[in-house]
Amino acid sequence: MRRCRLMVEVGRRQFLRGTVGTATAAAAAATVGGGARAATPRGGVVPDYPRIRLANVRDLVVDEPLEVTYPDADAPGVLLKLGRRVPGGVGPDGDIVGFTTVCPHKGYPLHYVREERTLDCPGHFSRFDVEAGGQQVWGHATMNLPQYELRVDEKGDIWAVGLDELLYGRVSNVLG
Ligand code: FES
Questions:
Q1: Does the pTM of the predicted model rise above 0.70?
Q2: Residue bearing the CA closest to ligand 1, atom 3
Q3: What is the pLDDT of residue 45?
């Protein structure tokens, strides 16, 4: 979202990433001695995320959302090719990102607004900047939009391997 560029340069996500790094390092240190699993920022446990093929880079067109699900069929999301390199972007151009399309406020379905590069909520009008890692830029939500951790293999297949925030309505992103 271009007009909010300055607002998101040092956003909450960057702060949280720093927190995650600290927490992960602490958990890793704990693992050496006691076999503990990595802690999340919320004090939970990092689930064992599935590695799921979502698409191939050839399937994506700039600004044309591709509907997907991750980490299971009940978790709708979207892959986006943005046409310019962005933080967290993967693929040959570093411009492919993926997000849940369930609003973290109260679970309304989000839709993509290509002119603003946001995922917008019709419920209470929260907006999330897909060029800035899902940073919330407007509305009632109190967290950023969960973003997929993606990998691209030598064939151009796009794999989801994790999420960076808790999905709406879940106690764990991976249900047992
Ligand atoms: S459900 Fe999206 S802002 Fe409330």
A1: yes
A2: 124
A3: 66
